[in-house]
Amino acid sequence: MTSTTTSAPESTTDAPATRAEVCVAAAADLFRDNGEMIASAFGTIPAIGVRLARETFSPDLLISDGEAYMLRGTNPVGKKPQGDVEAWTPFRTIFDLVWYGKRHVVMIPSQVDAYANTNISAIGEYSKPKVQLLGVRGGPGNTVSHPTSYWVPKHSSRVFVPNVDMVSGVGNDRAAEAGPAAQRYHDLRGVLTNLAVLDFADDGRLRLASVHPGVTVEQVQQATGFDLVIDGDVPETRQPTAEELRLIREVLDPKGLRDKEVSG
Amino acid sequence: MVDKTIGAAEVISRLESGMTIGIGGWGSRRKPMSLVREILRSDLKDLTVVSYGGPDVGLLCAAGKVKKVVFGFVSLDSIALDPHFRAARQSGAIEVAEYDEGMLQWGLYAAGIKLPFLPTRAGLGSDVMKYNPDLRTVADPYGGDTTVAMPAIHLDAALVHMNRADQHGNAQFLGPDPYFDDLYCMAADQAFVSCEKIVPTAELTENHHPATLRINRVVVSGVVEAPGGAHFTSCVPDYERDEQFQREYVKAAGDAETWREFERKYLAVPESEYQAAVSARHEEVSA
């Protein structure tokens, strides 16, 4: 199809998937088979991913307007969402639902260790931190109450560290040590990064589940400050389907905000 | 019926250095900023501040009013972190008690309903237990899970900002979220409600469902009419967050000289002059 005069401009869906788009599809996959669940996604790519999941294979997800309502409808990221209000969910109701357990959150950790203990509180000595971050927020409660995943937009050994400075989100080893009350609803699903998808080995350590197209296993391991579990041949993260690419490019993120979070 | 209308100065006169003060709202949303500014101008010091923190915490830290912050996060929402709180933490100037945000709710709720603690899973396995070494777990007397016993967070005073109130202390939120303001009031010996407008009681429910009356007079000690009292945080539907002003606040914090200028212009002046300066600013911006 190389006609020079009559063809329409190349459809936006024909271009191969970018890294950001692979990440969006992988973020959507975190919400696959979640059923009727409150889906809270921090970060641009998880926010597009959760919308993509609801548009396609997980239609029953509940998604917040970022304030106090659950909204139906299809909304692009970066714009005030519109749609039918299906629930009033002020923070107090969200807190109740967190403990109720039918919520899946994707948080952005500043540090992650081999068992996916995560830190969003402070870097360095706790009494006088080198860098004060947000604070633990809902991390401790989320992780012992409902499914939790993480998004790391810049996979590096600064984020993936042997020991996190302040355990805000409870990892697999710490949940086990803390006993049945901590473990009963503890349910870490995985860590998505700009390089790879990580899930968990049987011993609770992070395992390299797939590398994104164009990324090598060695690259991921080099950017990780501890040994990832690597079981044999590591597959490649799946490509978004043509329909997913259309939804991402034309409906859910027409302004290309995803490229500001992950390039290439 | 008791008229609880008072001025901001009277609120401050009922507070003392060393007190534990809870501040309502959330992040940079519906904060009782005019009362916070009044504290900045006062001699109060060594305060323990309990907050779903925003610029209230930042400003009080910047003014050296804070001994300890009891918090789950401090954020300006549209700007992730508050520069003054960061600076106070990173210089080791303040003590902290950092809890999961649900634990914080539980602590306020326990204080309000006069319980010593409430059980929760939140905190288990995390370093919240390590850095709050006084936290204890409690065995289920019925044989179930052992959980965290989140202690009551008793407040000497609570400060909250609502959209409307009557002179008796019945107070109304008109935005999407009541936050935890009623729990702050119940957890406190004295609760002070500032509001955009004091109206006759009948007017409160003229156009709004009674469920918007989240705070009722039995938990309120004083009511302050403070139009623009949440500025520069949001107070929808009365006004949105003043993003431009918030950016200026953050920028000013980056440099000692600029911060002194910000203080001189906005914080060292009476509330009426603050509001006038904000209005003048808006005219400048829109011109």
What do these coordinates show?
The complex is a heterodimer of chains A (264) and B (287). By secondary structure, chain A is an alpha/beta fold. Chain A has a single domain (19-259), classed as Glutaconate Coenzyme A-transferase. Chain A has helices spanning 19-30, 44-55, 91-100, 139-145, 172-178, 180-183, 217-222, 242-252, 258-261; strands at residues 38-41, 69-71, 85-88, 103-107, 111-112, 118-119, 122-123, 131-132, 147-152, 187-193, 196-200, 206-211. In chain A, the strands form four sheets. Chain A has a six-stranded mixed sheet, with helices on both faces. Chain A has a two-stranded antiparallel ribbon with strand order 2-3. In chain A, a hairpin with a 5-residue loop joins β5 (111-112) and β6. In chain A, α1 (19-30) packs across α2 (44-55) and α2 (44-55) crosses α8 (242-252). Chain A is globular. Chain B is an alpha/beta fold. Chain B has a single domain (8-115, 152-286), classed as Glutaconate Coenzyme A-transferase (3-Layer(aba) Sandwich), CATH 3.40.1080. Chain B has helices spanning 8-13, 33-40, 55-62, 83-90, 101-112, 128-131, 181-187, 201-204, 243-253, 256-267, 271-286; strands at 20-23, 47-53, 66-74, 95-98, 117-120, 136-138, 147-151, 155-165, 171-172, 188-198, 222-225. In chain B, β2, α3 (55-62) and β3 (66-74) form a beta-alpha-beta unit. Chain B is globular and about 65 Å long. Chain B starts with 7 loop residues before the first helix and ends with a helix. Classes of the chains: A alpha/beta (264), B alpha/beta (287). At the A-B interface, α3, β8, α4, α5 and α6 of A face β3, α4, α5 and α6 of B.
Enter the CATH topology name of chain A.
Glutaconate Coenzyme A-transferase
Q: Specify the CATH homologous superfamily of chain A.
A: Glutaconate Coenzyme A-transferase
CATH topology of chain B: Glutaconate Coenzyme A-transferase
End-to-end CA span of chain B: 47 Å
Assigned CATH class of chain B: Alpha Beta
